Amino acid sequence: MPNGGPGNSPGALEKEANSAGMTKTIEDRIPEYIRGISPYVPGKPVEEVERELKIHAVKLASNENPLGPSPLAVEAARVALASANRYPDGGGFYLREKLSKRLGVPAGNILLGNGTSELIDLAARCMLRPGEEAITSEGSFPLYSISIRAAGGRLVLVPQREYTFDLEAITRAVTPRTRLVYLSNPNNPTGTMFKADALDEFLDRVPPDVLVVLDEAYFEYVEQPGYSRSLDSVRAGKSLLVLRTFSKVYGLAGIRMGYGIGPAALLDQINKFRAPFNTSGIAQAAALAALDDAEHVRRSQESNRAGLGQLAEGLRREGLRFVPSVANFVLVELDTDAQPVANELLGRGVIVRPMRWMGFPNAVRVSVGTADENRKFLAEIGAALDALGVKRRDAAGQLR
Ligand SMILES: *Cc1c(COP(=O)(O)O)cnc(C)c1O
Fold it and tell me: Which domains are assigned to the chain?
């Protein structure tokens, strides 16, 4: 029945359903493109595991900062809590001003979000009409696919090359119906990156009416030369929305604050339909203070660098293959279904994420923890594989 016709009244709907010989439910009325979405699988909360198994557990499952938040951010949040009877500044004036100075882009090119996750979704809602196409890579962050499908868009998944976004292939997948592309750099869950030169070439080849969303959630961890100059492209007026977050190096995943840097014309439109108070005053205050704690960021980067080295060395010693990572997590290939291994690890008090749902059925993703947590993971993954009788490779590459 056409929209706006008599079919919109409940009575008529009922009649329509009855005449078809069945009663419709709410679920029947939810579009197939929503019902077909595979749910996001969050990491298990450490409290839940400890309650169920009555053991101490380490959580290396959600790429969180193992050092915790900046004490300055915690104090600022505590102070802001005292004004929690008031609605926050929905425009996040002070935080956007601070980010503007820090990044060298006008505040009008910055949009705050309830985590980067919200901005991923808002981009799809802004750009996609049902049936239009959006592209992302296989083996990447599930929220891109979920947001495309929730907006009714047609999801186009491009295979990876050696665990990395294949920008060439994505360019070839662009059609006149493409409106949106999601890129993750570094990519979650593989920990790989593409260089600034490759992005520049990509942006030159993608038509200007296609929005490229570049998720740089792990930006602050990357130390490789030539990694990113994405903000130059925003300044140059490219159709690019760069996403960053306070959830990772700043250690504020629980407070929900992310930001996008992109064309003012796009952000103006998104600002019209986003929730007016999408970021809390507490989150804004914590983020402002976190930006001032350069020492905490530096310690977090240093700890991560050491942890990546510790995990790489330990995994090699254990005879396990992994994808070299530039971020704060490592994808470990086990040559066997990873779910039982993850379950076994859970029983031993180590929470990692089996990656079938992200496209790697034989891999787990382990987040870089503190030195003690990494040590515990390395000891227990060896024990878990032995307990399950999974073979590993010795120094000569022989399965044993
Ligand atoms: C962790 C992560 C984010 C951050 O999401 P928030 O909503 O800001 O917590 C964004 N993108 C990717 C790929 C991530 O792994």
Answer: 46-65+295-388 (3.90.1150.10), 71-292 (3.40.640.10)
